[in-house]
Amino acid sequence: MKAKETNPKIDFERIRVLYENTNVGYFGIAAGVLFFSYMIDQLASIRIAFPWMLTVSIAYIPRIIISIAFARKMKANEITFENVKPWENYFIYNSVLPFLCFSSAVFIPFGQNEFIALLYYGVIVMTLVSGGILSYSTSLPAISLFMNASMLPLIVKTFWFQEALFNALGLLLVIAYLLLSRLIPKQNKLLVENIALRIENEHQSLTDPLTKLGNRRRLHLLIETLVPSSLRRKDPFSIVLLDIDDFKLYNDEFGHSAGDDLLVQVSDILKDCSRDQDLVVRYGGEEFLLVLPSTSLESAQILVDRIRSAIKEKTSITFSGGIAMHSEQLSFEQLVEKADQCLYKAKSDGRDRIVLAES
Questions:
Q1: Would you place residue 3 in the very low, low, confident or very high pLDDT band (cuts 50, 70, 90)?
Q2: For 295, which DSSP code?
Q3: 3-state secondary structure (DSSP) of residue 141
Q4: Residues 6 or more apart whose Cβ sits within 8 Å of residue 250
Q5: Which residues of 99-120 are buried (b: 16+ CB within 10 A; e: fewer)?
Q6: Cα torsion angle, 279, 282, 283, 289, sign
Q7: Which residues, listed in sequence order, are joined to residue 289 by a DSSP beta bridge?
Q8: Of 21, 118, 185, 332, whose CB count within 10 A is highest?
Q9: Claim: this prediction has a pTM higher than 0.70
């Protein structure tokens, strides 16, 4: 059986929310550990309370480190759709030990205070599970692990005693466990569907409706991160401004519907010839802008030559273009202006040609 395929964009948002919510959830966990440590002190002994609290606290350190690492890499734009999925596994692997250490509280000997201690512990567990549903709900494996590790040892302990009060508490916990087991997958599915819907809405707002290429808003979002990253890494990028030659004449001869079909065909060729990391934007009516990360003028020229060959092979039109490479001295607006000047020169020199800006 093949593994169920997931959407990388949905995974990215799910896991981002998981870590974001967990950072807030640490306060709830800390409160729960401190409160039950106090109860252990009161109902058993400080000699048990302090080692238990210390053990749980130490067990959480690796997961806190993972959370900090994730936040830093997100801020540095090092986590992408392609590499985000393992971070869910990192979170789960580093959650097993702290969850088990916390649940070990049910095995502490409380003597005559056993029922009172389990009752307090049950209240704390249900409170934390409720918070966990909110914190971990975008990751079904994470919330399932937390609920099972927290509730199952407590349920087993309540039925271990052959007494009515313990068994009644255990029965209530079993009912709660069964209800949550049905509720959690439904809530997870609803959250994932909401994330998918939001991503789809964002995609539509960033996409040209005719060509399905990026629009200027999509371009603006990329440039906000690309320019600082390029300068920081000293890794220049290039842009290509392309314009279909005599498009108005094409429209007049074949009609606007055929003109739209041509724009879609050219857009498909641009996408097919570009790399995954490149952004292709419908910049104007028949004008297209390509943003090429980590690309020199010479490499951009090779890409444009490939596009020209495909255009001539599949259509009856030609295009002109200008290529410019970003540098520290230029803003993005100035870079586009530089490419536009090259495009203008290509048009004035006879069309069907590409002009490179000086480095």
A1: very low
A2: -
A3: helix
A4: 244, 258, 259, 262, 317
A5: bebbbebbebebeeebeebbeb
A6: positive
A7: 241, 281
A8: 118
A9: no
C-alpha of 105 from chain center: 36
- Rounded CA separation 201/218 (Å): 13
Cα separations in angstroms, 204 against 11, 149, 200, 213, 296: 19, 42, 6, 10, 31
Q: Which CATH number fits domain 216-356: 3.40.50.360, 3.30.70.270, 3.30.70.2690, 3.40.50.150?
A: 3.30.70.270
> What's the Cα-to-Cα distance from 213 to each of 25, 77, 244, 316, rounded to whole Å?
40, 23, 16, 22
End-to-end CA distance of the chain: 54
pLDDT at 1 over 70: no
Closest CA to 126 of 76, 164, 177, 166: 177
Q: Where are the domains of the chain?
A: 8-205, 216-356
Tokens coding 92: 């789960």
| For residue 202, pLDDT beyond 90 | no
Q: Any idea which residues carry the catalytic annotation?
A: 286
Q: Given the structure tokens 């199952």, which residue do they identify?
A: 152
